[in-house]
């Protein structure tokens, strides 16, 4: 299987480490770890933590499904039910939890006011100065568009995470750890910025990613081993304590051009197989995660370099995931 992931080594510039893990034919493998260029004092291995960027959103989607399964919230609940009175005066009842998770709530990609604060730290930490107060202000100003059309929104998933935390009466970090991370045995996954790999952008080291006002949209760190365990929990026979939630999170809900949208996950089909996938990026890391329940395969690819014009890491990881699906033998029912 090494030929599947070898092209990933050449897909990013300025990286010093890459970690790729896959599940195929009932076995887990770490195929690539280590340096991709110049020496780095931090060796990369299967337990090295990378910034996940928007792959974080898939964890928020699973948290939503878990809370639906427990009866804590309902998919059609208006999000303002879980916000302080008057916090979002222009969000109507059509802005539901499920629509936030499928990017169909009509919210813009970014909260109003974020770009102005982001410009001074555009190449390092554009979200650093946008905290909870900034999100609160953005909610008061937001006038959503017509719900129903898929429109990718960091703002929407950030709001979803805040609503779930409010519904449970817990900080999001504690809630996610209690409901998702510990049940799936993901000890290296969390919001803490240390320890983690040093990230690079155009060959220059970047500071740890900070996104204090929108953690549910992009603040998680994880390792190749943890991410592979996370993905295999979405495969038949591997769902464990979150079986009901996993079945719900991978169910298609909306169509967006050439793919479908589940709870956060994107889904494409080829003949008898499907691939659910998501990518993410910060200024210092790029991540891809994909899995196919019908083919019982999964692949995660992590690199300590942020995306630049011409980067092909995510596309090549996506292609490698499909090749893995194509090579898989469909398990026969017992």
UniProtKB/TrEMBL annotation:
Listed Pfam families: Beta-lactamase
InterPro entries named in the record: AmpC-like (IPR050491), Beta-lactam-related (IPR001466), Beta-lactam/transpept-like (IPR012338)
Start and end residues of each Beta-lactamase-related domain: 12-308
Protein name stated in the entry: Beta-lactamase-related domain-containing protein
Species this protein is from: Kibdelosporangium phytohabitans
């Amino acid at each position: 299987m090494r030929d599947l992931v070898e092209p990933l080594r050449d897909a990013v510039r300025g990286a010093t480490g890459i970690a790729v893990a896959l599940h195929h034919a009932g076995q887990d493998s770490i195929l690539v770890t280590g340096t991709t260029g110049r020496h780095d004092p931090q060796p990369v291995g299967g337990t090295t933590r990378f910034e996940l960027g928007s792959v974080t959103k898939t964890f928020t989607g699973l948290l939503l499904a878990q809370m639906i399964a427990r009866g804590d919230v309902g998919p059609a609940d208006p999000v303002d039910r879980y916000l302080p009175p008057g916090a979002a005066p222009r969000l109507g009842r059509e802005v539901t939890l499920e629509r936030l998770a499928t990017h169909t709530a009509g919210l813009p990609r970014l909260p109003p006011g974020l770009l102005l604060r982001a410009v001074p730290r555009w190449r390092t930490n554009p979200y650093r100065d946008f905290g909870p107060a900034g999100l609160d202000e953005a909610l008061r100003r937001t006038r959503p568009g017509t719900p129903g059309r898929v429109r990718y929104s960091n703002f929407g998933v950030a709001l979803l995470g805040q609503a779930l935390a409010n519904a449970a009466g817990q900080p999001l970090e504690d809630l996610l750890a209690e409901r998702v991370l510990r049940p799936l045995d993901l000890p290296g996954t969390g919001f803490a910025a240390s320890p983690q790999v040093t990230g690079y952008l155009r060959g220059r080291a970047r500071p740890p990613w900070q996104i204090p006002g929108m953690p549910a949209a992009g603040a998680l760190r994880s390792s190749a081993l943890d991410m592979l365990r996370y993905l295999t929990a979405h495969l038949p026979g591997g769902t464990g304590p979150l079986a009901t939630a996993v079945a719900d999170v991978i169910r298609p809900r909306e169509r967006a051009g050439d793919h479908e949208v589940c709870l956060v996950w994107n889904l494409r089909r080829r003949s008898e197989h499907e691939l659910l996938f998501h990518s993410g990026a910060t200024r210092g890391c790029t991540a891809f995660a994909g899995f196919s329940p019908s083919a019982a395969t999964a692949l995660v690819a992590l690199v300590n370099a942020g995306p630049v014009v011409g980067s092909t890491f995510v596309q090549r990881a996506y292609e490698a995931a499909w090749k893995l699906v194509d090579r898989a033998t469909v398990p026969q029912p017992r």
